[in-house]
Amino acid sequence: MTGRALGNFYVDLIRAITRILLPISIVGAIVLIAAGIPETLAGPVVVPTLENPAISQAIARGPVAHYEIIKELGENGGGFFAINSAHPFENPNGLTNLIQLVAILSIPTSLIYTYGIFANNIKQAWLVYCIPFAILVGFIIITAIGEYNGNPAINTLLGNEQPNLEGKEVRFGWVQSALYAVITTATMCGAVNSLHDSFMPNGGFVTLSNMFFQIVFGGQGTGTAYLFAYLILAVFVTGLMVGRTPEFLGRKIEKREVVLASFLILLVHPIAILIPAGITLAFPDQLAGISNPGFHGFAQVIYEYASAAANNGSGFEGLGDSQPSPIAIATGAKTTVTALWWNLSTCFSLLAGRYIPIISLLLLADSMSRKQTVPLTAGTLRTDTGLFTGVTAGVILILGALTFFPVLALGPIGEAFQIAKGIG
Q1: Which of 58, 262, 270, 395 could form a disulfide with 234 if both were Cys (CB 3.0 to 4.6 A apart)?
Q2: Which of 19-28, 148-157, 227-236, 238-247: highest mean pLDDT?
Q3: Which residues have C-beta within 8 Å of that of residue 315, sequence separation ≥ 6?
Q4: Distance CA 129, CA 135 (A)
Q5: Structural domain range at position 280
Q6: pLDDT for the residue numbered 63
Q7: Burial per residue of 48-82, b for 16 or more beta-carbon CB atoms within 10 angstroms, e otherwise
Q8: pLDDT digits (tens, 9 = 90+) for 301-326
Q9: Residue 197 pLDDT more than 60?
């Protein structure tokens, strides 16, 4: 896209592993060991329980420290233990929590600057960087306000205002839990140190929005690639408004680029989420297995498919996605359709959300690379200005709102109004 030679893939791959990923992982693992995360090749240790010495308990352990840094740096999200970074062996204190957050953010944020180096336009890279950064800060504030104010129904029973600590580890509290939830969904990591299902509607709104946008800062390179697609759409829209030739990276933006960018942003992701979610919601007992009827149950279903399509991996939980529907169990009905449906339908979202965008991005890059560069003139719409950056941010928010706002209104926004009115 920048016109520079691609180089040798295998050389770049080896350099990336040996000069960046491996050194960071080794140093990071040593720091995590020093901070209290275990690292051993020994098997589980069996000890008597405190409640009854006659009963034994097996405590799992293993090479957790180096697994943890690789998990966060590579944005995999799958924990060594079932409860992920909420487990005291994976994330024992505030220092390890901070290290994990830095590791999660390091590569997705740095790739925007890397683009500036490749394009020889550091100014534009910093301006583009401001878009996801501003959205991230806003989302952190929104989530933090919801968790700090707590649940009005609980506060009424307590007689005073308390933060929402449901589903959270006390050692992290509401602050670090809210920060972790926003960052892990913003970067498509999926690691969790608290239960997202227990967040107030503010948190549900933010975590869902992160996976809808996929650019705050997005996954390993995917967030930056999606930003490019938004930039192309913003160039086209702005060019139409001001009557200038839409150009990006010295190349004209024409029908093919707009179609590919629109297909990538406006069609693939919503289809991977909304269509299977619509089918699932049509059969709440037989397929969805919703344990929280109403707005929250709706958000649970949407979150599951958004997480799969965005390659995040976290979950709202509360769904019968690994067992028969809770309602079916309560009524004595014999059905295991729920688990089978979730496994098969999310496979569609996983495949569509990962591979179709890759093809679209490759076609988009190929189309850009075949175009002749055009020199800057007085009629060229510059993309490295604060004004254009603001327009791009507006395009991102408008497109996201138009596509997914009805879903958010039926989920966390509706739940927020319900709680405010004291209905639920």
Answers
A1: 395
A2: 19-28
A3: 196, 197, 303, 304, 307, 321
A4: 10
A5: 104-420
A6: 93
A7: eeeeeeeeeeeeebbebbbbbbbbbbebbbebbbe
A8: 999 999 999 988 888 877 777 765 55
A9: yes
Residue 228 forms part of a structural domain:
yes
- CA 214 to mean position of chain CA atoms: 7
Whole-prediction pTM = 0.90
Is residue 80 one of the residues assigned to a domain? no
**Domain contains 91:** no
Residue 175 CB neighbours (<10 A): 14
Q: Which two tokens stand for residue 174?
A: 């509401």
The alpha-carbon radius of gyration of the chain (Å, integer) is 23
Is the Cβ–Cβ distance between 232 and 261 less than 8 Å?
yes
Tell me the C-alpha to C-alpha distance, in Å, between residue 45 and each of 37, 57, 63, 65, 81: 16, 8, 14, 18, 15
Please tell me the predicted confidence (pLDDT) of residue 424. Answer: 46
d(CA 226, CA 190): 19
* 130-165 confidence digits (pLDDT tens): 999 999 999 999 999 999 999 888 888 888 889 999
Does a structural domain hold residue 25?
A: no
